[in-house]
Amino acid sequence: MTFSAPPREPTRTDRLLAAVGGLLAGYVSLAVADLAAFWVRPEASPVPAVGGAVVDRTPAAVKEWAIRAFGESDKAVLQLGILLLLGLLAAGIGLLALRHRAAGSAAVGAFGLLGALAAVTRPDSDSALDAVPSLVGAACGAVLLYVLTGRLLAPRPGTATDTVTATDTVTAADTVTATADRRGFLIVAASAGLAATGAAAIGRAVGSPVAENAAASRAALRLPPPASPAPPVPPGAQLRVPGISPFVTPNRDFYRVDTALVVPKVNADRWRLRLHGTGVREERTFTLAELTARRVVERDITLACVSNEVGGPYVGNARWLGVHLADLLREAGVRPPSEGGPADQIVARSVDGMTIGTPVEAVMDGRDALLAFGMNGEPLPFTHGFPVRMIVPGLYGYVSACKWIASIELTTFDAYDAYWVPRGWAAQAPIKTESRIDTPRPLARPAAGTVMIAGVAWAQHRGIARVEVRVDDGPWRDARLAAEDNSDTWRQWTYPWTADPGRHTLTVRATDGTGATQPEQRTDTMPDGAQGWHSVDVTVGPRGQGMRNEADPQVRSGRS
């Protein structure tokens, strides 16, 4: 008669390897899912899918804190946080599998189901295939964890047997020799890790067909010459002051604030724009070729993000190429509310599901509200909305600047709240008058003597009429304004300061074209944009020490 040997209590090494097995199973799951997503679409990968769901459910105050703390790296930080959390959960699942082998594998499968659910319920999902990457990845991870745990639980060949006779005594030596097949565990783990890494590397090297087709369509796009070109930038609009923001922001430096964890890669040849809704006489659908064949206009317009704090970086100026949105609306029979039209809101929808609400009146009041497909002489970069985005001067981006636009619906503010409104932001948000000191930088240490204070001011669609600078608690002094391009662009300014040694506070304020001056009191970005005076503290050293910061002679003589 024989009896089964008593179960062996896992050792510390077993637990460590089990946790490693869980981590490896999680890694393989994500690597396989990413590889599968290359053939479905990158947005269907579990981390972007789950991350997008997290972003949608994150309180607005937390999002604002993330933007302040991490800037444009907030998405990378979010994804890193998700990966760290998944790593902890995976290690825990590995320990669970050491006690309950099937339950551990089932837990990996459950996370795959959550990833699949997140992918197919995203606003931009239009196919059940979006569930495939998470499900395939989870299946591979579950099988791997089951195999690895089996290696830990299996006795090493040639050691104590699994059964003993009634007359035998189970000794401590027998228990010790009934160890796991750790060598086999390491071989399987290393093989799986290398295979997953290699597959992911090959997938990234080959590239996603979806992304590659989109890139090819952008490369093939030839922008049409504008029927209404932008006037040349006045020679005096760009001041030659070291440290000042360039009048035209290069595409690579233009700020990016959005919720897309994976930048949508849209094939321009397949892109369509749907125009429909209240007051639209007949629903229309436009291709990019149809838009570029229309009367094309070119305009210099400054954009600003509502998340931009006083003195912040989320503002930029570019030359945009596109068509007037008002023309398309009028052709479709749309009338603004001032002419008796029934719709007062345009809801623009992005391919990733983002909705942005814009006042119909602002689009149709004569300003250069554009459907833009060009930026600074080239097709829109993917990060800035290729193939087409909206641009409406004078409004913050979250109520006007829909990127990767896919549809335009005419409705009312009473009938529909766009994405940001239920999250605590105002439904309508004209850009507030703001000014910023670019140089000297905060905590700079210039030398005593002439120090050039310079920066930019903006009040899109109203223009900047005056900029004033104050040193410490002294009187306000008029800064010298650069030439104005148009009222929809920012304006550079400069003030030569005779600096004495010591610590000083420099403050700036602007007055817009309506005569309204920035208020002193600072307010938060929520619900409709920050306002207040920008100031920097500097320490002036003795003459000949520190960094001199002077404008060139042409600027100082007033010829700029």
Write a structural description.
The structure is a single chain. The N and C termini lie far apart (104 Å). 33% of the residues lie in helices and 21% in strands. It has 13 helices and 20 strands. By secondary structure, the protein is of the alpha+beta class. Helix 1 (12-40) packs parallel to helix 8 (182-206), helix 4 (74-99) runs antiparallel to helix 5 and helix 5 packs antiparallel against helix 6 (132-153). The chain has a 5-stranded mixed β-sheet. Strands 5, 6, 9, 10 and 11 form a 5-stranded antiparallel β-sheet that branches. Strands 13-14-18-17 form a 4-stranded antiparallel β-sheet, with no helix packed on it.
Put simply, the count of helices is: 13
Shape: globular
Structural class: alpha+beta
Largest sheet: 5 strands, mixed
The total of beta strands comes to 20
Helical percent range?
25-40%
Strand content: 15-25%
List low-pLDDT spans.
1-6, 156-178, 547-560
On the 0 to 100 scale, the average pLDDT is 88
Rg from Cα: 30 Å
**Order of strands in the sheet with most strands:** 4-3-12-7-8
End-to-end Cα distance, whole Å, is 104 Å
Summarize the structure.
By secondary structure, the protein is of the alpha+beta class. Helix content is 33%, strand content 21%. It has 13 helices and 20 strands.
Label this structure with key terms.
560 residues; alpha+beta; five-stranded mixed β-sheet; five-stranded antiparallel β-sheet; 33% helix; disordered N terminus; disordered C terminus
Topology:
Blueprint: E1 2-4, H1 12-40, H2 46-57, H3 60-70, H4 74-99, H5 101-120, H6 132-153, E2 163-165, H7 172-177, H8 182-206, H9 209-220, E3 272-277, E4 284-287, H10 288-292, E5 297-304, E6 315-324, H11 325-331, E7 345-350, E8 355-359, H12 360-364, E9 370-375, E10 378-379, E11 389-391, E12 405-411, E13 434-439, E14 449-458, E15 464-471, E16 477-478, E17 480-481, E18 491-499, E19 502-512, E20 534-540, H13 553-556
Parallel strand pairs: 3-12
Antiparallel strand pairs: 1-2, 3-4, 5-6, 6-9, 7-8, 7-12, 9-10, 9-11, 13-14, 14-18, 15-16, 15-19, 17-18, 19-20
Helix pairs in contact: 1-4, 1-6, 1-8, 2-4, 2-5, 4-5, 5-6, 6-8
